[in-house]
């Protein structure tokens, strides 16, 4: 029963062709199609990445130009501010050089304190730019009140900042701030 079937040459060729076609179909289905799909996906991703890279490069270039423009403006503004500051310092220096010191105008205050029988124990410039003088001393209540009144009558020269601290002892001690308006 083991009889071999003898194939005719046509059948052999047809069998060979069918085998080759089956091999080609299997190779196409299991090898070529997945590779083509992977290639298509990779090509799409590559194109997207190239677009993103171009957009990113443009964004980076634009951000770099914007940053450079802002830095240039800030540098220019800083230069202008530095020049303005130097100009203001020179003007203020000229103004302070031509004006007198607050201690230069103390004669009037000393005369007023002497006329009102006040003993000054401390004279100090509290703020040189504003010409504010701090005075401490002692005297009678009437003398202190008259001293303040006399300062107020000289409002074109002096202005009292109305800060008075009075301590009660044998004599009244006071501390007041006076602004020299001529400075």
In short, what is this structure?
With 183 residues, this protein is α+β, with helices and mostly antiparallel strands. The protein is built from three helices and five strands, in the order ααββαβββ.
How would you sum up this structure, described in words?
With 183 residues, the protein is of the alpha+beta class. The protein has two domains: 10-98; 102-180, Alpha-Beta Plaits (2-Layer Sandwich). 62% of the residues lie in helices and 17% in strands. The protein has helices at 9-98, 106-115, 141-153; strands at 119-127, 132-139, 158-160, 167-168, 172-180. Strands 1, 2, 3, 4 and 5 form a five-stranded antiparallel β-sheet that branches. The radius of gyration is 51 Å and the shape is rod-shaped. The model has no long low-confidence stretch (mean pLDDT 82).
């Amino acid at each position: 029963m083991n009889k071999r079937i003898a194939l005719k040459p046509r059948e052999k060729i047809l069998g060979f062709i069918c085998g080759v076609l089956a091999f080609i179909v299997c190779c196409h289905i299991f090898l070529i199609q997945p590779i083509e799909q992977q290639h298509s996906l990779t090509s799409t991703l590559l194109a997207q990445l190239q677009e993103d890279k171009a957009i990113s490069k443009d964004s980076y270039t634009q951000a770099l130009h914007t940053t450079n423009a802002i830095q240039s403006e800030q540098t220019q503004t800083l230069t202008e501010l530095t020049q303005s500051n130097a100009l203001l310092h020179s003007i203020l220096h000229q103004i302070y050089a031509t004006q007198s010191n607050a201690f230069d105008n103390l004669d009037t205050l000393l005369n007023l304190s002497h006329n009102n029988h006040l003993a000054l124990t401390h004279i100090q410039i509290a703020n040189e730019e504003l010409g504010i003088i701090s005075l401490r001393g002692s005297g009678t209540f009437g003398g202190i009140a008259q001293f303040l009144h006399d300062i107020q009558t000289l409002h074109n020269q002096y202005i009292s900042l109305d800060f008075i601290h009075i301590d009660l002892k044998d004599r009244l001690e006071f501390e007041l701030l006076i602004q020299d308006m001529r400075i």
